[in-house]
Amino acid sequence: MFDNPLVDVALGLALLYVVLSIAASSAMELISSALALRSKNLRKGVDTLLGKAHSAKVFEHPLVKNMARDGKHPSYIEHGTLATVLVDLLARDEDGKLVVSGEDSATKLLARLDPGTSLQPVLHALASRGGKTVDDLRTELAGWFDEGMARISGWYKRRAHWIIVATAMAVTVAANASTFHTARELWVNQSLRASVAQAAVETAAAEELPTDGESGPSLADFPLGWEGEDFRSWSFMDWLSHVFGWAVTVFAVSLGAPFWFDVLGKVANLRMAGPRRTRAA
């Protein structure tokens, strides 16, 4: 086994970033759920794709409305379902009677669009690309929705990234998790370094990262916290060191637990800890 203090410190920091990333991600998910960010993002995206008038009808359609609970909007709609719902809405008259079938020409369905609607040029373009019949147009529409959903997902990921950064800042400061302080403590305290490195190796050897404090690593394993700290007596350099140490931690945590779990495995291999265990068949 290749024992080296630098490798052990690197293992400790990677493990710390994994634990903090999980905490920040959990906080982000709680915020996202409480504010219904996914469903609001989806509604905004469908409004953009279809226009608000058609979007409102889509969300009132039974195939979509029944996906959500307590009158809320769903957080995800499969692109094929969206295509089916939109075609179904366009194929029915004011009384809900089906007046256009799947085998009819797509032109018959397009004629039912209100002139000037933002959806009209989209459906005409899809029909000219390969939507000869209504069923063909539904297939083309599903592909277009698939592309649109990828963009909508991108909007959410960008918003979620900034929430992760904010929660990473909160978790980092609350835990007083300065990268500089932690690295220094691991470097000078051999027993602490050895125990944290061993926990890192065991974590890296697992197939999946445990997410609960009882079976996996926790912040209690690290030299963190505000106990014994008197920030009122800190000098300018103390503050500077902590702020930069927190900033490094926040940046690292914003990269996410999967990233650091992968790094953990690679660093653990330097210690010749062996490959990760795989689940028995």
Task: State the main characteristics.
mainly alpha
Task: Outline the secondary-structure elements.
Layout: H1 5-34, H2 37-50, H3 52-60, H4 62-65, H5 79-90, H6 106-110, H7 119-129, H8 134-175, H9 179-188, H10 190-205, H11 236-254, H12 257-270
Helix pairs in contact: 1-8, 1-9, 1-10, 1-11, 1-12, 2-3, 2-8, 5-8, 7-8, 8-11, 9-10, 10-12
Give helix % range. 55-70%
What is the first-to-last residue Cα distance? 29 Å
The helix/strand class is mainly alpha
Work out the number of β strands.
Answer: 0
Short description:
With 281 residues, the protein is an all-alpha fold. The protein is built from 12 helices and no strands.
What does this protein look like?
The chain is an all-alpha fold. Helices cover 66% and strands 0% of the residues. The protein is built from 12 helices and no strands. The longest helix is centred in the middle third of the chain and has 42 residues, at 134-175. The two termini are 29 Å apart. The mean pLDDT is 85.
